[in-house]
Every structure is written in C-alpha cells, then in structure tokens.
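Pasting as-is:
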Amino acid sequence: MIELEGVPELVDPVMIAAFEGWNDAGDAASSAIAHLDAVWKGEVFAALDAEDYYDFQVNRPTVWLDGGVRKITWPTTRLSVVRVGGDKPRDLVLVRGIEPSMRWRSFCNEILGFAHELGVEMVVVLGALLGDTPHTRPVPVSGVTSDPDLARTMDLEETRYEGPTGIVGILQEACTHAGVPAVSLWAAVPHYVSQPPNPKATLALLNRLEDLIDLRIPLGELAEDARAWQLGVDQLAAEDSEVAEYVQTLEEARDTADLPEASGEAIAREFERYLRRRDGGPGQGTAGGPATEADGSYLRDTSSGRTRPPKPPKVDDPGEDTPNE
C-alpha cells in the first residue's frame, strides 16, 4: 500500500502521463507534460526509485555543480500535482519520466497504486509517433482506448493495434485490467523532421487534451513557437528540391484523404471545439469511476545549431506508422 503524506484531497483528479523515448517522437508528448507543469506550477510529491527500473548504461545519470558541490541527477519518473481553480475546479496528477528499461509490470503497478490512493478518475497517456504527414498541415492526433464504452461516449477509436509496443501501450492495458478508464492520445510527427523540439505537435496534443477533459489550458507562447517552427522547416525544405517535392506529395495525399471529412457537419463540430477551447472555462471531465486495485496476476513481476531535414527514403508507396500501443 502506498501512503501519501502532505498531498491534499484532490478534486475530480485526472492522471496525465508521458514518457521520453520510443513513444515520444520530437519530444512532443513529454513537452506537453512539461508545459502543464510550468503553467500551473506543479508540485512534485513522489519519484520512483531509479534503481528498480532503469539501466544506467542506457539512461546515464548526470553530474552537475551546485555552488561548487557536485551532485548527481538520476533518471527516474516523477509525479506532481497541479491545482486548477475556477468555477469548476479540477486537479491533475502529472506523470513525467523516461520509458523504463526493465520491470514494466511493477512500474505500471506502482503508477496505478498512486492513482488508486489519489482517487484518479481517468488516466490519459500522451504519445507521439513518426508518420508520413506533412509539416504544413494540422498535426493529426488520434485518441484510442481499449474500453468500448469509453470509445463510444468520448468519441474515441477502440484500439485494434497488434505489434511491438512501448510503455504507453503497456500502461493503458494495465489500466484496463485494473478497471481504470484510460485513453491514449497520439500525435503524428513528420518523419523527415523528427528532431526535437516539435512545438506544433505539442500544441496539437494539448488542444486535443482540452477537448477530452473539458479544461482550458493556458498556451502561453506555444502557438507562436509552433508558427516559428513551421516557418523554419519551410525554409530548410526549400533548400532541397527533393525534400520540397516529397512534402508536396504528402500534402496532396493528406488533402485527398481529408476531403470526405470536409462536410458541413464536420466543420461545425470542429468550430464548436474551437469555441469551447477559447471561450469555455475550466470544467470537469466526463469519464468517471474510481480507481481500483490492480489485477495482481497481470501486473505481477515474475523476476521481482540547425539541423537539415534528412532526405526521405526512396519508396513507391510510403505507409503511415501505426501508434505503438
């Protein structure tokens, strides 16, 4: 049993998590958590023991000086709380760390232990993947869940992915087995400009998160950073005719795929979402249900300067990556 001291009782808490590594293309997901932590001044209340989950030859500790005294920062995962006030207050539990190197079931079990003790009503895991999407178009963000009821009530896709997965997929599945409503939001990052940061993808994740949990998020300078990022990539792509031609091909494919969605109903729905984000105040989430104890049989650990965009690969029919859930 995890006992928390000094953490106040939370109001309609939602846990939002992101992990650096395989599921964090362009650092888009981890940057979204960092933004939430910064704008709402999150207070760290717990950190997982680095010895339990990380291979220090893969994720090395760093040494730094504090007033002439050498100190070490170990790779880990930290949990913080942000209190969002307003007419309809809601609290967020932010989980930010590095994808663990080992003992993933124990790792998820520990995260779910905190969720249970804090009364978390829903877990949202953010991820970003590399895809064949042009940087000049809106960033595609997909919302997926393993819960068919949640998929229906919150306008999400019920996941059908099969294949290799990362900690995002494992944590979502662990939540499902523990009876905790869980959603994954995935942003598609252009594979030809994958180096971080990608503020445009971070902004897209936060906009989709606003819709999901019905909470207005202060964006600060993120929108301007996204515009500057796109302008910078435009300039770099223009220097290479082959890249520019490839981007144009992606634009045409994307516009053709999006054409059926350009109906009056779809446009009205997107406009309503925009108005809710910009004019609506903080609100409460729509998914409920307290966290429950994890299924021990499932979660038990049996082992107790400027970069030039790279040229795209020569392929006849590039296919978009599927979220690694």
